[in-house]
């Protein structure tokens, strides 16, 4: 998709929803059309709900500000500097003729983009492909290294770093805490976050302990821990870490009688 940071799956359902909202607004008795309301709904829900990049949200808002204006109802309206204009009469065939004058391709000028945007997109795509192939090559070498005798040597820097990070703290030795009901919501949130943080630290420490034994041949090889070792060698964190925290957030506590911490904690990791 030209102009966007990635390809988004905008579909006919999004379009029909936007059309339906526009028709409903047109049928209201208000003299002035609520363009700001329509822009907000499309930007935050209809189309914006699929967008993951803050810069792309800005692009969407820029497009909507070109179309959802009073000038769009006049024949003088030309969005993004397009040469085509709307017919000055309410003749259906005139509108069909205007549409037929448009190119079969999505020209960059239709989106207010420079003519060389296609070359820029091709360059970015090529760089992504090269980066992907390099990662495949690194992963192949890393996987081969896991089968060698130097696995412990390669994992040692990570384990030493983890040991150093825990020197001034005692989270790995203290009993796993449980949330305590506090007087305010903020205090409850801080208490829950602390409990989850300690639990995650303990899980990471347990994983490093198993990796240490596995690299020395003291325990049988398990595929899931080999994957963790492979990720470390590739300096990569997989979604399983977020899933681990997600599961912790959805654990039930008898004092609360419901899932707690399902607000900021989950939102931060999804």
Automatic annotation (TrEMBL):
One of its GO terms (cellular component) is dynein complex. Signal peptide: none annotated. Residues 2-116 form the Dynein heavy chain AAA lid domain. GO terms for biological process: microtubule-based movement. GO terms for molecular function: dynein intermediate chain binding; dynein light intermediate chain binding. It comes from the Eukaryota. It holds the Pfam family AAA_lid_11. Coiled coil: none annotated. InterPro entries: AAA_lid_11, AAA_lid_11_sf, DHC. PANTHER family: DYNEIN CYTOPLASMIC 2 HEAVY CHAIN 1 (PTHR45703:SF22), DYNEIN HEAVY CHAIN (PTHR45703). This is Dynein heavy chain AAA lid domain-containing protein. It comes from Photinus pyralis.
